Amino acid sequence: MVPKDWNPVYLNDIADKIMVGIASAATHAYADNGIRMLRNLNIKEGFIDDSDILFVNEEYELQHKNKRLKAGDILTVRTGYPGLSAVVPKKYDNAQCFTSLITRLKEDVALPDYICRFINSEYGKKYISSGEAGGAQKNVNASILKKMLIPLPPLSEQRKIAKILSTWDKAISTTERLIENSKQQKKALMQQLLTGKKRLLDDSGKPFEGAWEEVKLSKVADAVMGSSPKSSSYNESSEGLPLIQGNADIKNRKSAPRIYTSEVTKKCSVGDILLSVRAPVGTIAKSEHVACIGRGISAISAKKHHVQEYLYQWLLWFEPRWEKYSQGSTFEAVNSNDIKSLYLIVPTYTEQAKIASVLSNADQEIELLEQQLADLKQEKKALMQQLLTGKKRVKI
């Protein structure tokens, strides 16, 4: 039940027009400057990402002048992530868009920001997904969008709801920037600490001294190559051990096995470093399970007098360098010899421990921020569900 002063309307009833942007090929008209062209990849949930804007020449654009955007238009992705919507800001007034749906609302009936939020809400997403057309490539068309039923509050309440939700958007955006900054700072710190360009202080307060040793990975760690059990042994009844086959069984750099195997071939222990040995090669994670490892994984553990966390951080730093290590060739897998013959430089055990502690703390700070972000998004989602349906009213 919606509040009595709310008016359930179809989107088509409050829109001047709902049309598709330019659908003809534009590659021949791309230019270094001219008329801006927004594509699906520029449309994010609630905002326009202008990090990769294309331009088309004016001659081409004039052929489609009836499609020009106005500030306040709502753009909705048709394919790929159908339903994802954002409001066109003033800076893109008179720009063009490629294949997205354009909704232009009637004046003084509904706020674009409010309607856009409704389309992006759980209700809007479920409605669009239930009406998606197409096979493997899902899409939403104008006729589906026109029939979206929206419980519409008075304009004053729309403004207040949009303002409240924008506060959450700002908190989410701020946290996302903090996460990105923290990741960049950690990346720079890894480059300095794991190459010896920056030395930390020892327990006496003096910088560590002495040359680092260049060694093969086999000297400082043991690497166990996985071996896949027979598929007939796979089960979901917890019989045997969890099975880690490859990247599909890793989430947020931690093991996340999906099935079990009653036939155990090779094993990893809790705390082992998991290295993907098949495309994409080099992805690093930590095992949180005693598990069976398939042929897509190698389990690595530091030898005595070497620090496991240091080795984990070094392999993280080296992760994007695997292609260069392979001399630039396109490779689908690495073998035991490739891993064991990998060269790295290592300081003393004490310095390894110090470096590992600093980088591990940086990871924990990032994880804390990421958890805060997840909480904010979940809280905003719950609030949207209440505000956009009238279950929770706001004071005007």
General description of the model:
With about 400 residues, the chain is of the alpha+beta class. It has 3 domains: about 5-150, Alpha-Beta Complex (Adenine-n6-DNA-methyltransferase TaqI, Chain A, domain 2); about 155-205 and about 350-395, Bipartite methylase S protein (Helix Hairpins, Orthogonal Bundle), CATH 1.10.287; about 215-345, Adenine-n6-DNA-methyltransferase TaqI, Chain A, domain 2 (Alpha-Beta Complex). About 35% of the residues lie in helices and about 20% in strands. It contains 10 helices and 25 strands. It has a 5-stranded mixed sheet with strand order 15-19-16-23-20, with no helix packed on it. It has a 4-stranded antiparallel sheet with strand order 2-11-8-9. The protein has a 4-stranded mixed sheet with strand order 3-7-4-10. It is elongated and about 70 Å long.
